[in-house]
């Protein structure tokens, strides 16, 4: 009867004592594994600021690999220049400037100065993109969105925060990435000098960055023309509690102490639901119902917080809910057929209100 299934054959000939020993062994291994996963690892996590930062920023996840940032055309970006800025905190930041469709065939735009002149004399809106965690400014879903902006005849500027892409390594923290982004936005606003409207677009973790930047600038009475928040969360504490990966730890009585509190205590907070109070420009929130990285409910919470401060007034803040049936999830709202119209009418309204 004993066929060639190794395990069956083995245990058929075991005595009951051996079997009990074997079961004890299994129990012991299970208990130790449980203690390691739900006890030891969380405690290490609680005390390691380095691990918390790595999990939050995921900047070590470099995808695509080995991008030559100086040759954007190799990843399919036309009319794009690569350049660097040295921030006020002496961090070297890598950026791309992408020309609008109507300037693509202009063969005289080649040098850095030519490109910068295009921003100085911009007639079309300019979008500054702040990306989410992991990857870099050449990641695929980001390229898709730049190409959409380009096809809508908008200028685009995108960049990598410190420690991402080919930007310089520097102390990675909320205030670090926020100050890099604030520097880039101020640099852009200064160059454009009011000749064209500048919009900020944040995605995922980049929504936390952009809301924080705009709140800081609001205290200096500086704002862009408008802010788009794609797949945003209300704050990191809620994002950590609702993230799918957290769900296996949520049954632990010490979940909050282990996972949520250390981020807060270490100033990794991204409290957009507080910062949004200060923002003075119109805001458009975009969120897909089937987002399984930042649940839709968190975008809605941010929207409710904004309404609470600014009133339910579409000139100040509005939210577009994207049906789960489209399957866009966390990263691919850029494929939404209505997105160009949503962006264009938002831009149009902002410009109309500015000239009124
Ligand atoms: C640019 O040139 C290409 C090829 O010559 C042409 O197909 C395209 O329509 C031109 N685009 C613009 C915006 O002029
Ligand atoms: C910026 O715009 C202001 C007002 O339109 C103008 O007075 C100023 O000269 C401009 N600055 C530069 C550097 O072009
Ligand atoms: C905001 O106003 C719109 C239209 O007036 C309404 O449909 C919506 O339910 C309101 N939202 C909240 C959260 O009050």
TrEMBL record:
Residue span(s) of domain AB hydrolase-1: 125-222
InterPro entries: AB_hydrolase_1, AB_hydrolase_fold
TM annotation in the entry: 22-45
GO molecular function ontology, one term from the record: phosphatidylcholine lysophospholipase activity
Gene Ontology BP, a term: phosphatidylserine catabolic process
Gene3D superfamilies tied to this protein: alpha/beta hydrolase (3.40.50.1820)
Keywords: Membrane, Transmembrane, Transmembrane helix
GO CC, alphabetical: endoplasmic reticulum membrane
Matches recorded under PANTHER family: ALPHA/BETA HYDROLASE DOMAIN-CONTAINING PROTEIN, FI04476P
Name of protein: Lysophosphatidylserine lipase ABHD12 isoform X2
Record organism: Bombus vosnesenskii
Gene it is expressed from: LOC117235096
